[in-house]
Amino acid sequence: MSLKVGMTKSEIEKEIAGKGTFVQIDHLTRFLKEPLTMEMKKFTYQKLADVYEKTSMFKEAGKMYDNMAGLSVTFVEKIKHHMKAVETYVKDGDAAGAEESMRRAMAEANTVQKEEIYQQTLKVYRSQAELFETTGKRANALQIYEKLSGMRIGESERTRVREKLRVLYEQLGRRKELQEISRKPITSSRPDQNDFQQRQRAQPKKSGVIEYDDDLGIHRF
């Protein structure tokens, strides 16, 4: 028996229970092609996210949470699902995916909520980077620490992150990056906005110009 329109949530859970991971994914994915209500689509995305997380397919889980956000009505619910996507993308070591979901969450937020989102994302980055280190996933840890180094963090933490990067570059044989970080002075990730804007006006926009994203607190190249 496959999943059919009109089934209740409990009937769907009963139908996929005990089946293999990929069978569950197949059933749920096929079910999404049916003319479902918005609520049933969100439920199905949630079940898919659960399956993906249990099998450490975190990037796919992140996509499901972003899809749930797209179907949500309230700003609070949208933010909640996008931030869950941030967590799962970071678990996959996908800093770019996490940043995009954070940006989507911020697009739904007011000024106070934006800062909360930013701080929550920093917390996720910190904890996951440490977990990657303890489990020997150095390349993943490196990607997260590189992202942290360009964000709005205190100078003591910046110094610690730079040391983490130096060690990881050395362990992974990244000689060029190791030399660069050894030469580069420690500076705040948040430049003086007046000085930055004056320098930007003094030169035409072109590819490769460094831009500062005030909402995200990061540099863009």
Q: How would you describe this protein?
A:
The chain contains 11 helices and 2 strands. With 221 residues, it is an all-alpha fold. Helix content is 68%, strand content 3%. A hairpin with a 4-residue loop joins strand 1 and strand 2.
Short summary of the structure?
With 221 residues, the protein is mostly helical. It has helices spanning 9-16, 21-31, 38-54, 58-71, 75-91, 95-107, 111-134, 138-149, 155-171, 175-183, 193-201; strands at 211-213, 218-220.
Helix content: 55-70%
How far the N terminus sits from the C terminus, by CA atoms, comes to 52 Å
The overall strand count is: 2
**What is the averaged pLDDT score?**
86
Please mark out the parts with pLDDT under 50 across 5 or more consecutive residues, or reply none.
188-212
Strand content: under 5%
Main sheet: strand order:
1-2
Largest sheet: 2 strands, antiparallel
Strand and helix map with partners:
Elements: H1 9-16, H2 21-31, H3 38-54, H4 58-71, H5 75-91, H6 95-107, H7 111-134, H8 138-149, H9 155-171, H10 175-183, H11 193-201, E1 211-213, E2 218-220
Helix pairs in contact: 2-3, 3-4, 4-5, 5-6, 5-7, 6-7, 7-8, 8-9, 9-10
